[in-house]
Write a structure and sequence with these properties.
Chain lengths: 675, 514
């Protein structure tokens, strides 16, 4: 059922190439811009027509429904500052047709030649009234740029908001500082999903959640359908309304029933591999389909070649309080961190072979010769372009969008950022802006050149309010411990919500909770403000812990608890049973001094695993033992116990010889031969 | 049941049981002899098997190893720097020895740390005043989940107490080289401990209890030992015996052997000399079996190579040791063994579980599995069981180890046979002396391990194995053996002649004795 719906959705969204009839009636108006290099009027017009054609192929079919009223205009390759795009001089149109879609790319050099690349895509649905049927209101609703698959899904499952995260890799917060978007757009290693669902009870909320998970699983080609009740928990404080007051904004849609409420559900699949098949569905959601604009850089080979990457999808409902008009919003983020020298080297040298002897960079202050070389640290001279990193230039276009595509580089003055506009048969033009933000308005090819002599000089990294590390402790396969360390590096106390959901096969003993600290005056009672614990139920429910803690300044707090490892049933072991079991990341939400969210690393728990060729042997041995026991018991119960003499007598009496003798005597007696 | 019953009755009729019980010491002896014969059969052709890689994911030496060419220059660069540290630590005769050592190790750690940080390794120093500090670093796997790790350990001093400069330089150069590869699915942990014994053991223990910087569960560990500062060496020794009889999974040993041989080196097991390595005949195989059993028994007590430190945490570990100062194998070849092994382990999706955990190697490429050597081992233990049954039923004495075997020969002094009494007593004394746990261990080690333990050195080694490495098998052995021995001594002491009252009672006494 679900899958058939998915497929219908996909076929509907297949693009139909439609001719743009209004091309002849173009009003050509050229507005020159101060940065623009000289160009003839004719050339510009030609290129703009091509641009328009390209755009028509990439926009949704519905953009052509409005094509009649759309006037294609010339748009120059123009560079703007983001702060004054109210009066964009490049676009001149009488009736600009735009859709609620924006895209943005942020680059941020990180220390040690790393680069954070963030893609932000925002789109929203047409406004609607949740409690009114579309037929009643007489209003014609349309999806426009909002993905067609999402809205029916939200309606079907009464979901008000859901957040899907695909994250892999190691974020080095000590060097790179705070996570992008303060950590609210990245999950733990693997796949993470949480949602706010309107339902009448926990059970119905779970039913809807399950549908949502299955739907998303099919759509994002991820194993989200493995989310079941043994993985789902209902967070109390970490998500939803506790600290950001989101719930106030979301009204209950179903007001006929009295006891409806909003439920927040959360589940994560730790260490689920994230790959191209998860990214492609997201690209399909975007109006440009990865053909133009920055989404053309969303190439699986590049995104998943990075050291750390995170793909996040946030769908949210926004309602106006006065008239109850609502709107769905979707924000998709793709973030990745690459190590620039390694990435560049891979183009020249796909296998990191040893550097040729004459290209070695040696430390001249230390002994060196033809045989010996103490390697110099990585050069801070960096010069690269986006086309080198992604193997292609950006095709700017997407002229149906509300705001032009923006590329921003967030860095210091020591970096030279230049936008290169590539024009066919012409000299390339180069532009720079004071704030390193560029808007791509025309359909030309763009490239960004990044150059610096001191790549260590990057914008001040945002301080991470708390450092965290978590590890499994213990020896053997019977029991173990979980140790979480929280370090507050700042001089202000940090208030956090610690959330942890542990699978039922870790039999947790909360009584063993111990809190240690560098400050001896700290104990469990002084730092724990509140604690929520919902114990696990075998095969039904994970253990769910939430702590409200306050970590004093410059203090390290370690808390640990012990658990027993359970024996699973034979069929509960996964095919790769000896891999161990993935334990999902704990989520730490910092409430003050700033809102920030981070996750610990995931863990690999080893349960005692049977040798799966053993059951055969076990069956044989057990059967033999059972057989022997049964035989002995049966004999004891059934057989008469006699003395040896009696037994001998019985044996003699039973023998055929004896019986024949008796028979003979009997016969003889009958015929009267004996007395 | 009928059949058993018949037998039982026949036996009862013939009075077999008392006879059998009287013959128990002989049975015990016979089973011991059979067990030894079974062991001697193992090296015969057809009894052992060729090793094979059981886990298909490992694929040793399938990928070309690139740790060569200019990496050698870098390795030499690091080594020259490290040699300056070794020169510093030669000033040990200067008055303030201790302070000098501390500063050099601290200084060394700080320098190595700064080198490692250059290529993105997260480092931390594990402080332990008792055993010495340990510097370790974690190279996080790009896009990995960070739940699994492989460890590369380079103790600053090797098992012989020589400075492991080549190994340390190799460790750093390899880590630098690894950091350029995007292929790792498991974190790489590099450990620089002061020694391969208590310092490494303490670090492993801390990693599983109290360390803040951790990189997930360690799947496999390789300890590098390259004490010479030369570029060339001769052959590779592989040490695999863990504490308390633990062995690493045979797959790990197999990939180590196959990679080492693939790189053109000779593999020596159990300290065999280079000339003996290629021998493959009955006696060489038997020798390796016996050496294997001996090394497994004395693991932790004799020289510790480093792989022993990982026993007990489901970490498969081996030590690679470069032997010989001259030869035609260069140091990067030694690095390539580690590289290829890491690439193999990196392929693993599950923990090592496919291959054997109980095995005895006959040559680097031949082994007997537990099913082959178990009959021998079981018979030996049955011999002890029979002897102890004997001691209970025939009021004799018990013993519990092969070295304790003379104890079974201790006889109860017959009371009426006065002529043989003193003879027997002398014999008893001798047997008891030989079977004293401490004396017998001493005799054993002076005969078979004379190069490692001079005089009474074995006893401090036993204590240190217990204290520093948690090697409890010897403790348990001694604890269970010592009281038995004492009881035996006690029982022989008390069998003084009792005054004979009547002939009848004398007969009863004799019967009981037998």
């Amino acid at each position: 059922m679900i899958y058939s719906k998915v497929f219908t959705g996909l076929t509907l969204s297949i693009l139909v190439f439609q001719k743009v009839h209004s091309l002849e009636s173009l009003d050509t108006e050229i507005n020159s811009y101060e940065y623009v290099t000289t160009q003839t009027e004719e050339d510009v017009t030609n290129s703009s027509i091509f641009g328009a054609l390209n755009c028509a192929t990439t926009t949704d079919s519905l953009s052509s429904t409005k094509a009649a009223e759309q006037k294609y205009v010339d748009f120059e390759e123009v560079l703007h500052k983001t702060d004054n795009h109210e009066n964009i001089p490049g676009i001149l149109t009488n009736y600009p047709v735009t859709y609620p879609y924006t895209e943005k790319m942020n680059l941020r050099p990180l220390p040690n030649n790393h680069l954070l690349i963030s893609f932000i895509f925002d789109m929203s649905s047409e406004p609607f009234y949740p409690n009114k049927n579309a037929l009643d209101s007489g209003q014609y609703s349309h999806y426009t740029v909002f993905p067609k698959i999402i809205k029916p899904l939200l309606e079907l499952t009464s979901t008000r908001q859901f957040q899907l995260r695909f994250t892999r890799g190691y974020w080095d917060s000590e060097t790179w500082g705070a996570l992008p978007y303060n950590g609210f757009k990245s999950g733990g290693s693997g796949v993470e999903l949480w949602a706010t669902i309107e339902a009448t009870s926990k059970e119905t909320a779970y039913e809807k959640w399950k549908t949502l998970a299955n739907y998303l699983s099919g759509h994002f080609c991820a194993s989200i359908n493995f989310i079941d009740n043994s993985k789902t928990s209902f967070p109390q404080y970490t998500f939803g309304s506790f600290f950001n007051g989101k719930e106030e904004r979301i009204p209950l849609f179903d007001q006929k029933r009295e006891n409806t409420d909003l439920y927040v559900l959360h589940a994560s699949l730790a260490n689920e591999p994230v790959c191209t098949e998860n990214l492609t569905p997201l690209i399909k959601f975007l109006p440009a389909r990865g053909k133009t604009g920055i989404s053309s850089y969303l190439d699986g080979h590049k995104v998943f070649d990075s050291i750390w990457h995170s793909v996040s999808i946030d769908v949210d409902t926004f309602c106006e309080r006065e008239d109850g008009q609502c709107q769905y919003k979707m924000e998709a983020n793709v973030d990745m961190v690459i190590h620039v020298p390694n990435t560049l080297e891979r183009f020249e040298n796909p296998i990191p072979k040893p550097v040729a002897g004459d290209k070695l960079k040696c430390d001249l202050s230390k002994p060196y010769d033809i045989y010996e070389c103490f390697p110099l640290s990585e050069s801070t001279d960096t010069n690269f372009s986006l086309s080198q990193l992604f193997n292609k230039t950006i095709k700017g276009c997407n002229n149906f969008i509300k705001e032009p595509t923006t590329i921003c580089v967030q860095t210091t003055n020591e970096w030279d950022i230049t936008l290169k506009v590539i024009e066919d048969g012409q000299k390339d033009s180069f532009f720079g802006t004071p704030d390193n933000c560029f808007e791509l308005v025309s359909s030309k090819e763009y490239d960004l050149i990044i150059d610096t002599h001191n790549s260590q000089n990057v914008t001040l990294i945002d301080e991470v309010p708390i450092y965290v590390s978590r590890s499994l402790t213990g020896y053997g396969q019977d029991h173990g411990g979980l140790r979480t360390l929280l370090r507050n590096p700042s001089e202000t106390p940090v208030k956090i919500i610690f959330y942890e959901s542990l699978p039922w096969f870790m039999r947790l003993y909360l009584s063993t909770l111990t809190v240690e600290s560098t400050d001896p005056s700290i104990n469990r009672d002084t730092i724990m403000e509140s604690m929520y614990y919902s114990p696990a139920k075998d095969r039904e429910k994970p253990a769910h812990i939430e702590f409200l803690l306050e970590i004093p300044p410059l203090t390290t707090v370690t808390f640990s608890y012990q658990f027993d490892k359970t024996l699973l049933q034979f069929a509960e072991y996964p095919p790769d049973a000896n891999h161990g079991f993935e334990i999902e990341a704990a989520i730490i939400t910092i409430v003050s001094p700033k809102l920030y969210q981070l996750r610990t690393s995931t863990l690999l728990l080893l349960l005692s695993t049977p040798d799966f060729s053993m059951p055969y042997n076990v069956i044989i041995i057990t059967s033999t033992v059972m057989g022997l026991i049964f035989g002995v018991m049966f004999n004891l119960l059934v057989k008469r116990v006699v003395t040896l003499e009696e037994a001998d007598k019985i044996l003699v009496e039973r023998s055929i010889k004896y019986k024949l003798l008796v028979l003979k005597q009997h016969v003889l007696r009958k015929i009267g031969l004996t007395s | 049941m009928g059949l058993v019953e018949t037998f039982q009755r026949k036996a009862a009729k013939l009075g077999l049981f008392p006879k059998l019980i009287r013959l128990l010491p002989i049975f015990s002896l016979i089973t011991t002899i059979i067990s030894i014969i079974l062991l001697l059969i193992l090296p015969l052709d057809g009894q052992y098997r060729r090793t094979y890689i059981s886990e298909n994911a490992l694929m040793p030496s399938q990928a070309y190893s690139y740790f060569r060419e200019s990496e050698w220059n870098i390795l030499r660069g690091y080594r020259t720097q490290l040699q300056s540290f070794s020169n510093n630590s030669n000033f040990e005769d200067i008055s303030n020895q201790f302070a000098q050592k501390i500063t050099t190790s601290e200084e060394r750690f700080r320098t190595i740390e700064s080198w490692l940080n250059e290529f993105g390794v997260k480092t931390s120093i594990y402080r332990n005043n008792a055993t010495g500090d340990t510097l370790y670093g974690i190279l996080h796997a790009p896009r990995g989940d960070g739940t699994e790790a492989m460890a590369l350990c380079v103790p600053w001093k090797n098992s012989n107490g020589n400075l492991n400069i080549g190994g340390t330089a190799l460790g750093i150069a390899l880590t630098r080289y690894f950091s350029r590869w995007p292929i790792w699915s498991k974190n790489i942990v590099i450990v620089f401990s002061e020694n391969p014994k208590q310092a490494l053991r303490a670090w492993v223990e801390a990693y599983h209890t109290s360390l803040d910087l951790t990189g997930g569960s360690i799947e496999a560990a390789i300890v590098l030992d390259y004490p010479s500062v030369n570029d060339f060496f001769d052959y590779t020794e592989i040490h695999y015996n863990g504490l308390n009889g633990e062995l690493p999974n045979l797959d790990l040993v197999n990939i180590a052997v196959s990679i080492t041989q693939h790189e053109g080196m000779k593999v020596s097991l159990h300290n065999l000399l280079k000339d003996e390595v290629d021998e493959n005949n009955y006696w060489s195989r038997l020798k390796l079996i016996l050496l294997g059993i001996k090394d497994s028994t004395l693991a932790g007590v004799r020289k510790v190579h480093g792989n022993e430190a990982f026993s007990g945490w489901r970490i498969q570990s081996i030590t690679l040791k470069a032997c010989g100062d001259s030869g035609n194998i260069d140091i990067t070849t030694f690095g390539r063994i580690t590289e290829a092994m890491f690439r193999s382990v990196n392929n693993l999706l599950e923990k090592f579980h496919q291959s054997f955990f109980f095995y005895i190697l006959l040559t680097p490429k031949n082994f007997v599995s537990i099913s082959s050597y178990l009959p021998s081992a079981v018979l030996l233990s049955i011999a002890y069981a029979l002897a102890s049954i004997n001691s209970i039923l025939n009021t004799n004495i018990s013993f519990n180890s092969l070295l304790a075997f003379p104890m079974t020969l201790v006889q109860i002094v017959s009371i009426h046979d006065k002529t043989s009494m003193s003879k027997i007593q002398i014999k008893n004394m001798l047997f008891l002396l030989v079977s004293n746990p401490f004396i017998s261990i001493l005799i054993f080690t002076t005969i078979f391990e004379s190069e490692n333990f001079k005089g009474l050195e074995v006893f401090p080694a036993l204590i240190s194995a217990w204290k520093d490495l948690n090697c409890w098998s010897w403790f348990i052995l001694c604890v269970s053996w010592w009281p038995t021995w004492l009881l035996t001594v006690f029982s022989t002491m008390t069998t003084i002649p009792i005054p004979i009252v009547t002939n009848d009672s004398e007969d009863i006494e004799i019967k009981k004795d037998k």
